[in-house]
Write a structure and sequence with these properties.
Blueprint (H helix, E strand, L loop, with lengths): L26 H5 L28 E7 L18 H8 L1 E8 L5 H10 L3 H4 L16 H6 L4 E5 L17 E3 L17 H14 L6 E7 L17 H22 L6 E7 L4 E2 L5 E2 L6 H4 E2 L1 E4 L8 E8 L3 H9 L23 E5 L1 H6 L4 E5 L3 E5 L4 E4 L16 H20 L3 H6 L6 H9 L21 H15 L3 H14 L4 H13 L3 H14 L3 H13 L3 H14 L4 H13 L3 H14 L1 H19 L2
Parallel strand pairs: 1-5, 1-6, 2-11, 3-4, 3-5
Antiparallel strand pairs: 2-9, 2-10, 6-10, 7-8, 12-13, 13-14, 14-15
Helix pairs in contact: 6-7, 13-19, 14-15, 14-16, 15-16, 16-17, 17-18, 18-19, 18-20, 19-20, 20-21, 20-22, 21-22
Length: 624
């Protein structure tokens, strides 16, 4: 959690006299760079004057988060091949922000920012899986539930499972994932159609007359992309977005069918975008260029916003929390890093923080920290970067060291602001060191067995520039695909190249260990998994190694590894599955059965498919 005091954060106390959008068609407003009507046909060159504090008091709130969705792949954002008629229709009777950015290109940290109004260093979640939103944070759901709202969430990916903390404040948190037949991967997801079905079912069963806050999460545009229709065979990412758009429209139709649209505030926002080859990155999470940081943000409420309005200031996903409260007329009692969008026009020069910690936490490369205003962006990296977004929206011309004195001063302001923030927050080393809570006996046992000795701990952690490592990252991606297809030899060769170039990449070490294990070489697998644990333990890596120990009947080494995995992820069903396997091999069948049943109870969507047959065999073995 941040060391920064609450007084230092941006206040979200609403101003009762402020109006969000005023005089948008006047030249003076255009000069202030706030509301500039969108040029394409159909845009209304007026601004409603009645959207102000408490203008949606008592309304329902519907938050739609579009995972992995680029703003520039929606037709309403100018994409000529966009097939998003339902989102476009929403924008036509709402406010569409052209320059909305996220805080991190990763699902869990970004959603934590959306629902708390805080930057990642302040809410404490810096990556998927290994972090959990602490209970000291206050979510939008908690605020609204305390004021009489019925709250519900419909989650499409295991990454946002309740165990990671975002269920705080929700009466109903539907994170049920399809049960995998095997394995403990964290990529389980539900399609947009399944999410829409679940949300509509809740809408039809909910208590009538009580205001609600519903969060509907769509995950479909994640790779691998499915085109859904033949017309998208050559652009499957667009096909995923089109399918998601249609399902979103189906849910809006259900809202309309229940006559709820006239008293429902709808906010649609992307958690992060997707790199489609820009800067040599495929996917997201490793870089913080606008391909992954710029997101759609649409606010719609027909009774109070009847025409399309375009916001041209830079805003952030953290702004949703204070905006909803101000529109509902609720006085916030917690600090926020966001600014109510009703006040956004008063901050034309506002700068927004963004980060990429995954490169440091997963790969041992340098972390990325950035600051962005409407026209400029700085990225703190081993090779620093400055961009003029007005002239270079693709961020292709790094101006660092090339600027004239006046321009350099403007960028220096952003850099100084970024440095000041980072000084007040935990260092990357402190963030990476948080998490494990082992007792001394377990630590001693692990050390005696050669784990966590520090002998191979990286001394140059955080020095490699992520943008220079993209060829390596793409190589790792290709190796993962090869291994999944059964071509372990080629996968191992690629990963060995990665490790030779950078021995401290725990993600590559894990992949290499897995490939060797699939190839039947347990010795090589153990070697690489041990190195990964020594850099920083991860539950899945500990479990892979524990399974090797069970197979090889090295039982004295198994339990310390399971204790280490449990300290990293207390609800990981794999710990109990491995413990059950260990007990079963020792003919302690009754105890093994308890371990398997514990895995089912704590972690059903990752454990169910793995342990069902084990439980059946054990029950047969111990039945009289």
């Amino acid at each position: 959690m941040s060391r920064r005091s609450s007084e230092d954060r941006v206040s979200v106390k609403p101003s009762r006299s402020r109006i969000l959008w005023i005089a948008g068609v006047l030249a003076v407003a255009a000069a202030a760079s706030f509301l500039i009507p969108r040029p394409p046909a159909g845009a209304i060159h007026e601004t409603p004057g009645d959207l102000q504090t408490a203008s949606a008091a008592g309304f329902n709130v519907l938050l739609i988060t579009l995972d992995t969705t680029r703003a520039d792949r929606l037709a309403c954002y100018g994409y000529r091949r966009g097939a998003t008629p339902r989102l476009d229709a929403l924008a036509s009777t709402g406010v569409r922000f052209d320059h909305a950015v996220t805080t991190a290109p990763v699902t869990l940290p970004a959603h934590c920012s959306i629902l708390t109004g805080l930057y990642p260093p302040n809410h404490g979640v810096r990556n998927n899986a290994e972090f959990r939103l602490g209970e000291t944070n206050v979510t939008l759901a908690e605020v609204l539930r305390d004021r009489g709202y019925e709250t519900a969430a419909f989650i499409a990916s295991f990454v946002l499972d309740a165990r990671f903390g975002l269920n705080q404040g929700f009466d109903h948190y539907d994170d049920r994932m399809p049960v995998p037949e095997r394995g403990f991967g964290q990529d389980q997801e539900r399609s947009a159609s399944a999410i829409t079905d679940a949300a509509i079912g809740w809408l039809e069963r909910r208590e009538a007359g009580k205001p609600f806050f519903a969060w509907v999460h769509y995950y479909d545009p994640h790779a691998p992309y499915l085109p859904h229709e033949p017309r998208f065979n050559r652009a499957p990412y667009d096909g995923e977005i089109a399918f998601m758009d249609a399902q979103f429209g189906r849910f809006v139709d259900a809202v309309d069918a229940h006559s709820l649209r006239d008293n429902t505030l709808i906010i649609v926002v992307g958690d992060h975008g997707e790199s489609l080859g820009e800067h040599s990155e495929s996917g997201h999470s490793r870089l913080i260029y606008d391909a992954v940081m710029r997101v759609p943000l649409i606010v719609s409420c027909p009774p109070i916003v009847e025409r399309e309005v375009v916001g041209d200031v830079t805003v952030c996903v953290t702004d949703i929390f204070p905006t909803v409260l101000e529109l509902l007329g609720i006085e916030p009692d917690t600090p926020s890093d966001g600014v109510s969008l009703l006040d956004a026009r008063d901050h034309p020069d506002r700068s927004i923080y963004m980060e990429g910690m995954v490169t440091y936490l997963d790969n041992g490369w340098a972390p990325l920290f950035g600051m962005r205003d409407r026209f400029r962006k700085v990225i703190q990296a081993p090779q620093p970067e400055y961009y003029d977004l007005s002239e270079d929206p693709g961020e292709l011309d790094n101006l660092y060291g090339k600027l004239a004195k006046t321009a350099a001063a403007r960028y220096a302001r952003l850099e100084s602001e970024l440095s000041e923030l980072l000084t007040d927050w935990p260092t990357p080393e402190e963030v990476a060191g948080a998490g494990e809570t082992l007792d001394q006996e377990t630590i001693d046992r692990l050390a005696s067995l050669g784990y966590m000795s520090g002998d191979t701990a990286p001394v140059d952690l955080g020095k490699l520039d992520p943008k220079e490592m993209m060829p390596t990252w793409e190589k790792m991606g290709e190796a993962k695909r090869l291994s999944a297809r059964g071509d372990q030899r080629r996968a191992i060769d690629l990963l060995a190249e990665v490790i030779r170039a950078w021995p401290n990449d725990r993600t590559a070490l894990r992949q290499l260990g897995m490939a060797h294990l699939r190839a039947g070489d347990r010795g090589a697998a153990e070697e690489h998994l041990r190195k990964a644990i020594d850099i920083k333990p991860a539950a899945d890596v500990c479990l892979l190694l524990a399974q090797i120990m069970v197979i090889e009947r090295r039982f004295d080494e198994t339990e310390p590894l399971l204790a280490l995995a449990l300290s990293v992820d207390p609800r990981h069903g794999g710990v109990y599955v491995a413990r059950g396997d260990l007990l079963a091999m020792q003919n302690r069948h009754a105890e093994a059965l308890v371990a398997y049943e514990t895995a089912q109870r704590l972690d059903p969507y990752r454990s169910q498919g793995v342990v069902t047959q084990r439980i059946e065999r054990l029950r047969s073995a111990i039945s009289p």
